[in-house]
Amino acid sequence: MEKLHALFLEHPIICTDTRKIQENCMFFALKGPNFNGNAFAKDALEKGASYAIIDEEEHLTSDRTILVNDVLETLQHLSTYHRNHNKSKIISLTGSNGKTTTKELINAVISKKYRTVATQGNLNNHIGVPLTLLSIKSNTEMAIVEMGANHKGEIAHLCQIAQPDFGYITNFGKAHLEGFGGVEGVIQGKSELYNNLTSHGKYVFMNADDPIQREKLATYTKKMGFSTSDRTYYNIAFIEANPYVVLEVEGIRIKSQLIGKYNFNNCCAAILMGKYFNVPLEDIKAAIEEYQPKNNRSQIMEKNGYKIILDAYNANPTSMKAALENFDAMDADEKIVIIGDMFELGPTAAVEHQGIVDLAQQLNFEQVYLVGENFYGTNASFQKFKSFADLKEFLNLQPLKKGTLLIKGSRGMALERVLENL
């Protein structure tokens, strides 16, 4: 590993896709259900890679191919070695909802004072976490590492790789219920981050208004939390979310560009860490106020007379409920909702989709459109469409009224395509 790391320091770019080869990179020949990177090692070298890391001897074609037992494990071990080679501190976070937005906010705040790297997009799995660690430079002071999981044991494994110094869990919600085996499984799986930190005597950040977090960390002393009411923690006041989150801390009002009360806690986490790491409050305020969401995450836009809340990056019962309740509380005329199926819910899918429909029927919306086979199977008085193609065909014949639209669904539904029909 020492020799491999020395090569990496000379060629500090990792590529895993021959379509994205960069000059002098190191190509790691990963395998998947439908591909074998070993077969592309020669191609990677011809395209400019300096070395190709492989685990099948038949592809050992030159002195620039390096044979290892397992390419993925080697990538993970190299990232841990590199993480320990540098002096940067690792802040890890996980949770059911809000991970990526919170990670971006933390990075915005912390980078006001420190040199940082952070997970790109949501590359937060057993490959993405190593790639984030390997993006650490010799002058990096803080690395913000997002960790995702859909099964128990995954966060524990990612902690072994990243060896975090600090950590935060956004929340415990109804996400990936199929893989975790229910809500209790979600709590156990996400808590693996706090378990790792507390067992190693590391520092923990927490939402002190979350009863689960309070219980789990009740006797742990190396912690800092935020609360809207408990004076034993760092107090941050929620002012409004109409539609943008406004909050107050130490008498200073911060107006974010994030919609929805559900983003309040995400802002609080970033503020809390800024406070802990001695980022001046005026810089914290500037970082929160400057941050703009992207990639279909709670974006507000206007098109052809429609005001649109585009939250189509992902969805689960917890985030869907929060989005609908927030939309209901907004000051707006002609509220129109287009929601798509929520995936990975396993045997609870029918009950959870019906629960969302029941909630939507209680709220004050002008029109609601349900898209996807799960929503199509619910008992609802709304327009239902088995597929996006069916919705598109309908909208071509009956365009939506002008108004304010909420568009939300799981990534696989790709509901941002609705924008083409406005």
**Overall shape:** globular
Count of strand segments: 22
* SSE-based structural type: alpha/beta
Q: How many strands, what sense, and barrel or not for the largest sheet? A: 7 strands, parallel
CA gyration radius, whole angstroms: 23 Å
Task: Bin the strand percentage.
Answer: 15-25%
Main attributes?
422 residues, alpha/beta, Udp-n-acetylmuramoylalanyl-d-glutamate--2,6- Diaminopimelate Ligase, Chain: A, domain 1, UDP-N-acetylmuramoyl-L-alanine:D-glutamate ligase, Protein-Tyrosine Phosphatase, Chain A, 22 strands, 23% strand
Description:
The chain is α/β, with parallel strands linked by helices. The protein folds into 3 domains: 2-69, Udp-n-acetylmuramoylalanyl-d-glutamate--2,6- Diaminopimelate Ligase, Chain: A, domain 1 (3-Layer(aba) Sandwich), CATH 3.40.1390; 86-290, Mur-like, catalytic domain (UDP-N-acetylmuramoyl-L-alanine:D-glutamate ligase, 3-Layer(aba) Sandwich); 299-421, Protein-Tyrosine Phosphatase, Chain A, CATH 3.90.190.20. Helix content is 35%, strand content 23%. It has helices spanning 2-10, 41-46, 71-85, 99-110, 128-133, 154-162, 177-180, 183-190, 192-199, 211-216, 264-276, 281-290, 317-329, 349-362, 373-376, 388-397, and strands at residues 14-15, 26-28, 31-32, 35-36, 51-54, 65-67, 89-94, 116-118, 142-146, 166-169, 203-207, 223-227, 234-235, 237-241, 244-249, 252-259, 299-303, 306-311, 335-340, 367-371, 383-385, 404-408. The chain has a 7-stranded parallel beta sheet, with helices on both faces. Strands 17-18-22-19-20-21 form a 6-stranded mixed beta sheet. Strands 1-2-5-6 form a 4-stranded parallel beta sheet.
